[in-house]
Write a structure and sequence with these properties.
The chain has about 220 residues and is α/β, with parallel strands linked by helices. It has 10 helices and 6 strands.
């Protein structure tokens, strides 16, 4: 048995622009004099984790009021992000449906190896029109000890599905995700979005902007099937 592993919500749909909007709206509502422009936000996405991103930014630049914690900012940002997502219908990224259809046709399992919250996952799948049953397993941050770039989430999914890393291929949209996949022994196709296009993907087997044009995914679907 083989498995295709989608590595995060950004591999399913482009949500970074709504994430940035949610961060900036949270800053405004909490009277924090920060505003993350596109270029700055792009650089911040090299590291995973919203709350740690706020903490690290404050250490470097200051400006977070003593009465406000990174956790409070992140919780408000998450609430706003959910609202923005609920108000939107988010299209699947190019080639995502092609991957799903070919995996089902070839009896290949599908995994969603994300370390975001279950609430984020639920909102994304609803906004993108995907039934959770599309995937044979969906992880979340509560199921693993360490987030990406550590390989925990990949190791978790492979163990639960009883699939070898050598029988797997991952799709990741950020450097930290590629590192996590490779550290778990999983071949990875880089699928950057507009905010992660500048990341280094030297460890990925290829980089594409449309999954249907991935040579390695195409070969994975037909090899030994």
């Amino acid at each position: 048995m083989k498995v295709v592993i989608f590595g995060g919500i950004g591999t399913i749909a482009n949500t970074s622009y709504l994430q940035r909007k949610a961060f900036n709206t949270a800053f405004e509502q909490l009277s924090i004099e920060w505003h993350w422009g596109e270029e700055e936000y792009r650089s911040l996405l090299v590291e995973a984790g919203g709350e740690s991103r706020i903490t690290d930014y404050n250490k470097k630049h200051g400006g977070l009021p003593k009465s406000v914690t990174p956790d409070q900012v992140h919780k408000l940002k998450t609430s706003l992000f959910h609202r923005f997502m609920t108000e939107s219908k988010i299209p699947l990224r190019k080639g995502v449906q092609w991957v799903i259809d070919h995996a089902k046709f070839n009896n290949i399992k599908l995994a969603f190896a994300t370390t975001t919250s279950q609430d984020n996952i639920d909102v994304l799948l609803t906004a993108a029109g995907l039934d959770p049953s599309t995937f044979d397993i969906i992880s979340n941050r509560d199921l693993v000890n360490k987030s990406k770039p550590e390989p925990d989430v990949y190791e978790y999914c492979l163990e639960k599905l009883n699939v070898l890393a050598t029988d797997s291929i991952a799709i990741e949209d950020a450097k930290s995700g590629v590192t996590a996949a490779i550290s778990a022994g999983v071949t990875c196709v880089a699928f950057p979005n507009e905010f992660t296009a500048d990341h280094s993907y030297v460890d990925a087997i290829e980089k594409v902007t449309d999954l249907e044009k991935s040579v390695h995914l195409d070969a994975f679907f037909v090899l030994d099937n």
